[in-house]
Write a structure and sequence with these properties.
By secondary structure, the protein is mainly alpha-helical. The chain has one domain. Helix 1 packs antiparallel against helix 2.
Length: about 80
């Protein structure tokens, strides 16, 4: 029972670190490449800005979760 808990906790920590790195990289690239465009869109048309912001949040949540899950699947398969 304890071994299963330790294994789950280790998997959680690995997933947390991988996801954290991906979120940091995603935010860096969004701010670096899209910051001026987002600022001008915010001041010119807030409805478009809201839609674009929602799409960016959706891509971050779904896309990065799928990438992280895929990498963890490969890591677990490689361990066996």
């Amino acid at each position: 029972m304890k071994n299963s808990r330790e294994h789950s906790f280790t998997d959680f920590l690995v997933e947390l670190v991988i996801y954290g790195v991906f979120v940091a990289l995603y935010l860096y690239f969004v701010f670096y490449f899209l910051s001026d465009w987002l600022k001008s869109m915010f001041s010119e048309n807030r409805i478009e800005y809201a839609v674009v912001a929602f799409v960016l949040m959706f891509v971050q949540s779904v896309g990065l979760e799928r990438i992280t899950t895929g990498l963890l699947f490969l890591i677990r398969r490689h361990k066996r």
